[in-house]
Write a structure and sequence with these properties.
The complex is a heterodimer of chains A (about 100) and B (about 525). Chain A is mostly helical and about 100 residues long. Helix content of chain A is about 70%, strand content about 0%. Chain A has 4 helices and no strands. Chain A is flat and about 40 Å long. Chain B has a 7-stranded antiparallel sheet with strand order 3-2-1-4-5-6-7, covered by helices on one side. The longest helix of chain B is centred in the first third of the chain and has 30 residues. Chain B is globular and about 80 Å long. The termini of chain B are close together. The chains are: A mainly alpha (about 100), B alpha+beta (about 525). At the A-B interface, helix 2 and helix 4 of A face helix 7, helix 8, helix 14 and helix 21 of B.
Chain lengths: ~100, ~525
């Protein structure tokens, strides 16, 4: 429950830059800002939901954990997307 | 890292010096921080690990009432150890349905596990259980008491330094928040390192800082020393931090102990039915007996001492110590954050997962160091000594540790139960295997060493459930069908970790470093200037 809300938050935030570059290639500024706002709102809501339980401190800790995990999930989802023409350039392998 | 023309001509910029510091501190302390992180991570399940390592103790599916359990064990101890100076009874909690107790005095004590239903002492194989990893995490085992903690403290300070310098160095922290560039060698490792670090950043900062706080009286004792100069200062200071009751000598007049169950019931009315953690009896059976009932820190985010002191002679409440001063309260909360004892199952798994990410952060950092420099080696077959040593230490610290930890569990099941110091020998086995892994890493070529050790870890971990099935009755099928979360969870986690190691082993075996030193040197500099500024 908490996790899903936080997930949506992080996910929407994740939509901003990377999805623009990877997914649709074109996402206007307005959409970007909306997505970021929605994401931030989602995360803040998750915080309020989390601390409403009997133990506020536990809720706070749980919130941090949930959003970290949600961010990781979003990260993995983006990472396992098939490569889009970036891996063949060898010059980038040798920083 | 983008090197601007301005800073090329003047002194190195902030980011560059921070990057240098990050790399040095991370590399040198990383070989210690990785084991600390991994043993700390598994310590979040130390109760469960201890239970897996004592399979002969039946799991208790139904939670007994604490007052009844306390009285049963007190009765048992009255027969078992009537003349001890002190009994300490650890009551069951949500994760472990059985109780344990220790008796004796400070220098000479015995411990045992007690069945919470019958109050009987149970015959158990001698093992440290999950306590070994927990203590290793901050004492490093073989070292004398203060030295291990000091080294760990230095490593923790180094970790804090690494975190902050890493933050300063990571210029594109927001734009690269979700970046992962696959199959790009060092860049991929860098992205992984950044991901583990940034996505778990609240945890990493918290855990490092609070880790230092747990041993703060050791690292920064001067405030406490001022307190100790005052009369009763020592006692007042200790009372703020730990449950401490002045030990009065026994009068010598025997008197049966008042009903301890009643005392626990009183504590339950104050704190709640499942909030009593342990009962300590001083001078049992004597007229000067005292009973301390200690509140659990499982349901509160603080470990500050809260206890009730009863007279052992008549069961009267003498003192209720439930408040500490603000400094101690702060410490109590920070300490509790580090231990995570208050965590419920979901939160505990979150702690474990993010802590594992922290471990991976240190590991990927160590590996990144060698990957990045391997490309620049003029003779990859014969690297300079520092590189060679760093690579071998990486293998032993990372893959070797996995092997050693798995071997610890194998030892737990296979060492014969009759041998003396069995618990200590399980630990020796851990270190022997780790040393062997280091030796193996020193003699084999690097890639082969990695692959072989990762496969060894895979096999040892994957066969843990099989070992469990062969050496106990609580195999995976039985534990799943009985809803035994502890055993099922352990076996399944072992399998999951085995899969992880297998995946790593396969990737390492397949990896071929594209090394063409003469040709790639110029392009590498171009790529350096090019990639490190780009998203």
């Amino acid at each position: 429950m908490l996790l899903s809300i936080a997930s949506f938050g992080a996910f929407a935030l994740g939509m901003e830059r990377h999805q623009r570059a990877i997914c649709h290639r074109k996402l206007g500024n307005a959409s970007t800002w909306t997505l970021r706002a929605v994401g931030g709102l989602g995360l803040t809501t998750a915080l309020f939901v989390a601390v409403r339980g009997p133990d506020m401190a536990l809720g706070l800790v749980a919130w941090f954990g949930h959003i970290s995990l949600a961010a990781g999930t979003v990260f993995l989802a983006l990472a396992v997307r098939p490569q889009q023409g970036g891996s063949s350039r060898k010059s980038e392998t040798v920083p | 890292m983008q090197v601007t023309r301005r800073s090329q001509r003047t002194a190195p910029g902030l980011r560059q010096t921070m990057s240098g510091l990050h790399i040095w501190v991370g590399l040198l302390f990383g070989w210690l921080l990785y084991p600390m992180f991994l043993t700390g991570t598994v310590s979040y399940f130390r109760s469960e690990i201890s239970q897996w390592m004592r399979p002969e103790i039946p799991s208790q599916p139904f939670r007994q009432d604490d007052s009844a359990v306390a009285q049963r064990i007190v009765t048992a101890l009255a027969t078992l150890a009537p003349n001890s100076a002190q009994w300490t009874i650890n009551l069951p909690d949500e994760r472990d349905g059985n109780a344990s107790a220790s008796w004796g005095d400070r220098f000479n004590f015995d411990t045992a596990i007690f069945d919470s239903v019958t109050g009987q002492k149970l015959a158990v194989r001698e093992t440290r259980g999950g306590e070994f990893f927990y203590y290793f995490h901050f004492t490093l085992h073989y070292l004398p008491r203060p030295l291990g903690r000091w080294i760990v403290g230095l490593a923790a300070m180094a970790m804090l330094t690494a975190l902050v310098t890493g933050l300063i160095t990571h210029k594109k922290i927001f734009t690269h928040f979700f970046t992962f560039r696959r199959a790009k060698g060092a860049v991929s490792w860098l992205d992984a390192h950044n991901a583990f670090a940034v996505l778990g950043l609240p945890f990493h900062l918290m855990i490092t800082y609070t880790g230092l706080v747990t041993l703060m009286t050791l690292y920064m004792p001067w405030g406490g020393k001022v307190a100790m100069d005052q009369p009763h200062g020592q006692r007042a200071l200790t009372a703020q931090l730990h449950v401490s009751v002045p030990s009065a000598p026994p009068i010598g007049r025997p008197l049966p102990l008042a009903n301890v169950g009643e005392m626990v019931r009183e504590a339950q009315t104050r704190w709640g039915a499942h909030n009593v953690q342990r009962v300590v009896v001083h001078n049992p059976g004597d007229a000067a007996a005292q009973v301390v009932v200690v509140r659990s820190d499982v349901h509160r985010t603080s470990v500050s001492p809260q206890y009730l002191l009863f007279s052992g002679a008549d069961g009267k409440l003498l003192e209720a110590s439930e408040v500490v001063g603000p400094a101690a309260r702060t410490r109590g909360v920070l300490y509790a954050l580090h231990l995570g004892r208050f965590a419920d199952t979901v939160t505990r798994w979150l702690y474990f997962t993010v802590s594992l990410a922290g471990t991976a952060m240190v590991g990927t950092g160590l590996i990144l160091w060698t990957v990045k420099r391997r490309q620049k080696l003029p003779h990859p077959e014969k690297p300079y000594f520092g590189f060679w040593l760093a690579e071998r230490m990486n293998i032993a610290s990372i893959a070797g540790l996995s092997i050693a930890m798995a071997a610890f569990f194998w030892g737990n099941r296979l060492l014969p139960s009759g041998i003396a110091q069995r618990g200590a020998w399980e630990v020796h086995l851990f270190f022997v295997v780790w040393a062997l892994a280091l030796g193996h890493a020193l003699v084999r070529p690097a890639q082969k060493a990695w692959t072989e050790q990762l496969w060894a870890a895979t096999v040892l971990l994957a066969l843990l459930p099989v070992l469990n099935a062969l050496t106990s009755e609580r195999n995976l099928f039985a534990s799943i069908s009985q809803g035994d979360a502890v055993f099922a969870g352990f076996d399944l986690t072992a399998l999951a970790l085995a899969v992880l190691h297998a995946a790593l082993a396969v990737r390492t075996a397949r990896h071929s470093t594209k090394v063409r030193p003469a040709r790639t040197k110029p392009t590498s500099i171009v790529a350096l200037r090019g990639t490190e500024g780009h998203p």
